[in-house]
Amino acid sequence: MNRTVGFVDRGELAAVATTLGIAHPTGYPTLTLLGHLVTRLAPVPPVIALNALAALLTALGLAALAWLYDAILARVAPALATPARAACAALAALIIGCGAIWWQQANGFEVHALQALLLPLAALAGGAWLIEGGARRAALAGLTLGFAFTNHGTTIHLLPAFAALALLGGDRLRRLAELPAAIAGGIAGLTPLLYLPLRAAQHPRFSWSEPTTWGRFWHHVSAAEFRGWMFADGGTWVHQARAIAHLLPGDLAYAGLLVAALGLWRLLAAERRIGLAVALSFASCVVFAAGYGIRDVDAYLITAAAALGACAAAGLAWLAGRRVALAFSAGLLIVGANLALHWRACDESDLTMVADLTRAQLGALPPRTLLLADQWDYMTSASYYLQAVEGLRPDVVVVSTALLREPWYARELARRAPGTVAPVRPQLEAFLAAARDYEEGRPYDKAKIRDAWNAFTGALVASALLRGPVYVTTGATLPGLERYVRVPEGLAHRVAPDSSYRPEPFVPFAVRPWRGRADAYVATAAWIIAEARVERARWESGHGHAEREASLLRDALRYDPEIDPRRVPPLPLDGNQLVAQSAATFAGIRTVLAALPSGSTTKEPGAATERRVLSTARER
């Protein structure tokens, strides 16, 4: 497992769990409460305790998978001896557990680690009720399903499976009579959601959406903020489908697909409704993941991986019915092949790049800086934990330019940095008033909100510059910034009134590259550092300090992840483009360095240096 914060949401979720806050939609109250309890009890730093919790939950999820597969085999292979049946179920669970999709959930604190446990438990309880009946089983099925929904919305992929079990089996009237018990259990299972408005009313440090009203609560738990990423365009389907078509077969070590195909045939032949339930849950998961425009789509394939495991278990059971040794040998070979295929990719014990990058980014800033950032996956999320829990640079106010568009975030900023917001309080109040209907889910005036927001953010930047330094990360934009010059310093740009020169202490950043990973996140994190060094080299040379150019470019090469884009498999969304961009940038730096005189100095203007690096990158 990772020993610190990782990419994407891990920093935010760790900070929220440690401080009892509210995470991004859908809030994840169950994970937050469980994580907070662990941080209180474990005698280790919170991030270590939380990452260990993720490993434990994912491992327990494999035990639940084996239990689920054994229950399925009891129905479809009743003649198989109990020890052989249990062994087939355990081997199928191990096959899935040694695949990248499941295994990577164990590496760091994320919501999908708990989902890996709740998903098979909900499937077990729901299947037991729909097949065997009973009011108690109905209540337990509703309870586990509702509880799973409080953790993650992908629980919905179980509903098509439950529908198949309910509609294709007998005793429909009995199940209908037991439905009230299931509904009552489901309502009880949803009670952790009450944490969100109750905690939000106390104004914690992290309070995404501030769900204190019904409108904001529903907006949050229904993930309305992310609906625009779902089924948005055909290009998303193409990229995601290519990545999924690579990920899922790899999770069975490819050869395991034959066993899974055999198992699906046996499921449909022996117990058609169970076979259809497995197939429908798989299809629901894959269709949703293919239409969801995110880069970390692998975590959304847990249900599909579990369904493949059920098929593999049935296939191994069929082989065991002919010859037990054959089934065990096939299962162990697939497990071993999966270990060999995924061990290195799933080993994050040496991943410090995210924490290193965040410390380098904040550590290079002057005291009392306002940092406008757009690097959620690589720095901003990690800064939540490192600042709020570990006390890193509390004087730096980090503002997400993307989240600043949300009224709740503006209110949160006013609470945590009152000195920054106080001078623009009238503009803030005008923005919040304009956005009130939007927050409550009522019809709203987009132009009115936009104009109020532009006035607020423009005043915020102007006011901050009067009191102290303002920096922006590469690509961050806000209304009003276009009036200023961006001076590259450290891993960000200083917002300045003019282009006058200011020296930058040359101290190589203490960022440890994460080499050997064909990963878009690793490639982009390295590109962030390299791009900052290239821009500073251009600035130095353009101001008559050409002797600094070579040292800055050589420093940039220290962070090269050494990824060959030609050997990178299909990645979700724009992953392959990001890897190619990073590799081309480092190749361009090498080309420029090779052209410099042996004395490592050049009289070429800085703009030409930048053009050569970018030109070489584009050509490659």
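Next protein, fold it too.
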Amino acid sequence: MSNRHIEITETDDGLMVQFSAMASPCELHFQHKNRSIVEPIAYDVCHEVWRIEDKYSRYKSDSLCSKINASNGRAVIIDNETFLLLTFATQCFELSDGLFDMSCGILRRIWTFDGSDNIPTQMQVSAVLPFVGWDGVLFDQQSITLGQGMEIDFGGIGKEYAVDKAIGLIHQSIDCAALVNLGGDLACCGSRDDHQPWQVGVEQPGGEDKSTMVVALNRGALATSGDAKRFLHCNGQRFSHILNAKTGWPVVNPPRSMTVAADTCMEAGVLATLSMLQGHNAETFLTDQEVQHWAIR
């Protein structure tokens, strides 16, 4: 953690904290100008986000996620926090009829969404697909056991979970309006002194001329799913990084970006991803559930 640092600067109406986590630029905004009060809270929040990253990142060899993925069919002891996240993942799997599947991360062995035209063959996809399937993940409050050759990836819920933990910690620690932004997934708490909403910029996908959409957020959370930075392009076709767990291929014709508002960031994030998994029916899926959203095609 030695290379992790925090920068605190003054803004017009308070203090802003900047740091990096989960491969993303992150910010905390406090409508409070007393640095001696805000600073220790900011450090607690940043370290909580880093704790979650260290525990659940598949990119860290010593993380719990990596330990589970290297278990080779053996049971791995888990704590209650992990049990609750796995339970949530099961609910998402069932609600999506198997489309939202945390075991499909193994498909990234053959899919690298780097903007190139490197599309795997159907034979390559078919070779990996047997190792995808949440029904092959067995867990209870004490342990988790994966089927042989399987892996899980907390990436679909991890950052959103960190946002909710961070905003909850701030709400418990200080009486002021605050906003947590972890790489575009965010939540706010408290009532601003001027009673105005937070003005949140949402990056729209595109080339050099891409613009920013501004959303006014009074309460709750926002999460965005899209292919602004992670995609493939081959023979005039753009391939989104949102993968169909049943076919092993990118979802056909999803929006370029979907931003969803909800009470918590985990809810918003899952709804955004679930809608993207519907492809061309993404907007209808959220409209039918009366979920506030902003889609970009």
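About the second fold: The chain has a mean pLDDT of 90.
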